[in-house]
Amino acid sequence: MGGTELRERIAELVSEATGGEVSAGDVLAGGSMIALGVDSLGLLRLVDAIELEYSVEIELNRPGRPLDTLDDLLALLTDASVT
User: Fold this and answer.
1) pTM here?
2) Which of 12, 75, 74 is nearest to 45 (CA)?
């Protein structure tokens, strides 16, 4: 899956994890997911969906790793798939 396809798929997963309250287009536009309305439950649903879809394990409590933008998610996914 290419970079653009991966970005779009992760943005779709964010939208699904929030029950459609946050649109994939808004996520793709950039900025803070918290400002867009992704709450802690949405974030947990999102991590579960990413772990299931990409067969990776994401550790949310890792120090020094922000998780508030699409780029943060992509970096975390890349790191998780390498380790």
Assistant:
1) 0.86
2) 12
Q: CA 40 → CA 11, 13, 60, 71, distances in Å? A: 17, 15, 11, 18
Residue 4 has a CB neighbour count (10 Å cut-off) of: 9
- Is residue 28 within 8 A of residue 11, CB to CB? The reply is yes
Give the tens place of pLDDT for each residue, 40-80.
999 999 999 999 999 988 877 767 667 889 998 888 787 76
Structure tokens at 83: 């380790």
- DSSP string for the chain: --HHHHHHHHHHHHHHHTTTSS-HHHHHT-S-HHHHT--HHHHHHHHHHHHHHHT----TT-TT----SHHHHHHHHHHHHH-
